[in-house]
Amino acid sequence: MATVLTGMQAKGLIDRQPSLVHAKVVIATLADAGRHLLDETGQEVNVLEKAFVDRFTRLSAGSSATSSIEPPRL
């Protein structure tokens, strides 16, 4: 997890500050760039997640398990 956060911090997506309460805790918050990226991509992620869940639900119900999964057009 630290590697992921370090990468996000290097890209300016998050800020990290040491906790005032616990020496081994670091608080990660979204930076302005991270909030902007989340706003831009949030809807696309929701569409893809819904498509995945719908497809998984159909496969679990016994629908054609051999057909390919195609992402929705955005």
Outline: elongated
Q: Can you tell me the residue ranges where pLDDT is under 50 for at least 5 consecutive residues?
A: none
Question: What number is the mean pLDDT?
Answer: 87
Give the strand tally: 2
Notable traits:
single chain, 74 residues, alpha+beta, two-stranded antiparallel ribbon
Account of the 3D structure:
With 74 residues, this protein is an alpha+beta fold. Helix content is 51%, strand content 14%. The chain is built from two helices and two strands; from the N terminus they run αββα. The protein has a two-stranded antiparallel sheet. Strand 1 and strand 2 form a beta hairpin. It is elongated. The protein starts with a helix and ends in a 14-residue tail after the last helix. The model has no long low-confidence stretch (mean pLDDT 87).
In short:
This protein is of the alpha+beta class.
What is this structure's SSE topology?
Elements lengths: L1 H9 L3 E5 L7 E5 L1 H29 L14
Antiparallel strand pairs: 1-2
